[in-house]
From TrEMBL:
<protein>
    <submittedName>
        <fullName>BON domain-containing protein</fullName>
    </submittedName>
</protein>
<dbReference type="InterPro" id="IPR007055">
    <property type="entry name" value="BON_dom"/>
</dbReference>
<keyword id="KW-0732">Signal</keyword>
<feature type="domain" description="BON">
    <location>
        <begin position="39"/>
        <end position="107"/>
    </location>
</feature>
<dbReference type="Pfam" id="PF04972">
    <property type="entry name" value="BON"/>
</dbReference>
<dbReference type="InterPro" id="IPR014004">
    <property type="entry name" value="Transpt-assoc_nodulatn_dom_bac"/>
</dbReference>
<feature type="signal peptide">
    <location>
        <begin position="1"/>
        <end position="24"/>
    </location>
</feature>
<dbReference type="InterPro" id="IPR051686">
    <property type="entry name" value="Lipoprotein_DolP"/>
</dbReference>
Length: 112
């Protein structure tokens, strides 16, 4: 009888522990496979390389995050034209399905 209670208590304790771990690991973001993560990292790298190669953009002013082919651009540039151009360049990168342009414009950063 005591062994049965001990086994039941251990099973409940382990179940509760694993459930807690599962919920703690769930941050609400969609999960990606290793392949998807690697693919998104490759797309992000290609976007940043395109920014570096483009004379109209400063790659240091724009951050890029890619998730499931959706590229999110953040940062601050000097003109709306620069922000729009960054989105256009991003759309031209293979693997980009959608662009979320969250770049802010601050005229004080205008290089000209």
């Amino acid at each position: 009888m005591e062994l049965r209670k001990l086994t039941a208590a251990a099973a409940l304790g382990l179940g509760a522990a694993f459930t807690s771990i599962a919920f703690a690991a769930d941050d609400g973001k969609p999960k990606q496979s290793v392949g998807e993560y690697a693919s998104d990292a490759t797309v992000t790298t290609k976007i940043k390389a395109a920014f570096v190669a483009d004379k109209q953009l400063s790659a240091l002013d724009i951050a890029v995050e890619t998730n499931a082919g959706v590229a999110t651009l953040t940062g601050t540039v000097g003109t709306a034209a620069e922000a729009d151009h960054a989105a256009t360049v991003t759309r031209g990168v293979e693997g980009v399905k959608q662009v979320m342009n969250n770049i802010k414009v601050d005229p004080a950063k205008n290089k000209r």
